[in-house]
């Protein structure tokens, strides 16, 4: 007997079906009107159904969401933002349980049910941010599935002791460790990458490197990362986040790097920010380079922007890259759902039997309409539980 039966919904805009859910898993998908009696029945009213959204790049520990407005300040560079954050975060109680829970609830309200979150690990907070995020996830009883990337926002080799903290975080269950601009922040890309890849090999974790450096300096670091990935056999576990330089390079240079990323098994995470060069996403798809979409920080000391809606990020990706056709628009939504499964270590993330029961209902004609309007989420099932109904949080 199913625990929940979601009736009369249209997965990806297809013909209506009934979805039978047992525990946290989709048990079966049947033609509409054929589900047996029993269980808690929810009328889907013919609404469009999508898999829960996946946020492949978040910083849930940094936000001041739910607190009084904090004015933007500090120098508008990567190092300036780091310094400003370090000076102000303690006074704002960052990292803190309440704002972290508030951010995760906003993710849920917008239909995000799985998150890959970078969590600061540095000499000031140690591993406390990871503890806070785990407590926040537990407070929501696992409705949002969160994978943790231990992230050295203040640098790696320039801060003695950080590599040890990253190693401890990996040993304690972080699924990945991070890096940051090996050239421009640490000014020693070889030492940073040697240290990070050494931990990843020893602990069997993934690696995610924030790379803001532009032009040839960024491309040089892509090459170093690709080379390390091939030599260590860590294909499928290494991600470049942001990687703005890729979109700025000449076409031939882009093509070679994309081919090498595909061969090495390096993936990409982007928040599709305005005023940046579009990624060569056609080539990335052709060569099997996964692209994940994320919100990055939300109302934090780096930026006052963000509302936690990954569907709006997908819309931003579509607009930045000039997507127009139905197939292209659908692809943008896939990047925020099914195609992001690998970023949260899921073999399958879709409305199919055997998948986790993460389902979002929207009042939209089709997937393309949902993308361009980003309407309110009418219902969100998170691991088989009703997290949002009629647009309002139930947790």
Number of helices: 11
Poorly predicted regions:
none
Between the first and last Cα atoms, what is the distance in angstroms?
25 Å
Structural class: alpha/beta
Helix content: 25-40%
Write up what this structure looks like.
With 395 residues, the protein is α/β, with parallel strands linked by helices. The protein contains eleven helices and 17 strands. It has helices at 78-88, 97-109, 128-139, 162-171, 189-203, 215-232, 251-264, 281-286, 310-320, 326-335, 367-373; strands at residues 4-11, 17-22, 25-31, 40-43, 48-51, 53-58, 112-120, 145-151, 176-180, 206-211, 238-242, 266-270, 291-293, 359-362, 377-382, 385-389, 392-393. Strands 1, 2, 3, 4, 5, 14, 15, 16 and 17 form a nine-stranded mixed beta sheet that branches. Strands 6-7-8-9-10-11-12-13 form an eight-stranded parallel beta sheet. A hairpin with a 2-residue loop joins strand 16 and strand 17. Helix 2 packs across helix 3 (128-139), helix 4 (162-171) packs parallel to helix 5 (189-203) and helix 6 (215-232) packs parallel to helix 7. The protein starts with a strand and ends with a strand.
Summary keywords:
8-stranded parallel β-sheet, 395 residues, alpha/beta, 17 strands, single chain, globular, 9-stranded mixed β-sheet
């Amino acid at each position: 007997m199913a625990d929940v039966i979601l009736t009369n919904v249209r997965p990806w805009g297809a013909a209506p079906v009934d979805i039978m859910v047992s525990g946290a898993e989709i048990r079966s998908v049947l033609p509409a009107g054929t589900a047996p009696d029993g269980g808690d029945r929810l009328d889907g009213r013919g609404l469009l159904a999508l898999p829960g959204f996946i946020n492949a790049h978040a910083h849930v520990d940094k936000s001041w969401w739910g607190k009084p407005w904090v004015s933007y300040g500090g120098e508008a560079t990567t190092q300036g933002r780091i310094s400003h954050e370090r000076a102000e975060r303690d006074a704002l109680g960052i990292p803190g349980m309440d704002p972290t829970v508030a951010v995760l609830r906003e993710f849920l309200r917008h239909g995000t049910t799985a998150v890959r979150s970078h969590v600061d690990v540095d000499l000031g907070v140690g591993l406390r941010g990871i503890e806070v995020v785990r407590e926040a996830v537990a407070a929501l009883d696992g409705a949002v599935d969160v994978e943790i990337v231990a992230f050295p926002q203040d640098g790696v080799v320039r801060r003695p002791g950080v590599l040890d903290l990253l190693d401890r975080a990996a040993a304690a269950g972080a699924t990945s460790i991070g890096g940051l601009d090996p050239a421009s922040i640490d000014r020693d890309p070889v030492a940073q990458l040697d240290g990070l890849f050494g931990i990843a090999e020893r602990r069997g974790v993934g690696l995610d490197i924030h790379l803001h450096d532009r032009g040839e300096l960024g491309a040089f670091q892509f090459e170093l990362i690709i080379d390390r990935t091939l030599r260590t056999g860590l294909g499928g576990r290494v991600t470049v986040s942001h990687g703005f330089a890729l979109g700025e390079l000449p076409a031939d240079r882009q093509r070679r790097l994309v081919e090498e990323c595909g061969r090495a098994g390096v993936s990409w995470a982007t928040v599709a920010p305005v005023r940046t060069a579009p990624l060569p996403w056609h080539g990335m798809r052709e060569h099997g380079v996964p692209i994940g979409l994320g919100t990055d920080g939300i109302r934090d000391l780096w930026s006052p922007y963000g509302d936690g809606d990954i569907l709006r990020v997908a819309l931003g990706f579509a607009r930045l890259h000039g997507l127009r056709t139905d197939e292209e628009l659908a692809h943008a939504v896939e990047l925020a759902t099914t195609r992001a499964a690998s970023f949260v270590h899921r073999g399958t993330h879709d409305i199919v039997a055997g998948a986790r029961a993460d389902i979002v209902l929207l009042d939209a004609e089709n997937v393309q309409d949902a993308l361009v309007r980003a309407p309110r989420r009418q219902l969100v099932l998170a691991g088989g539980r009703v997290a949002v109904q009629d647009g309002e949080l139930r947790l």
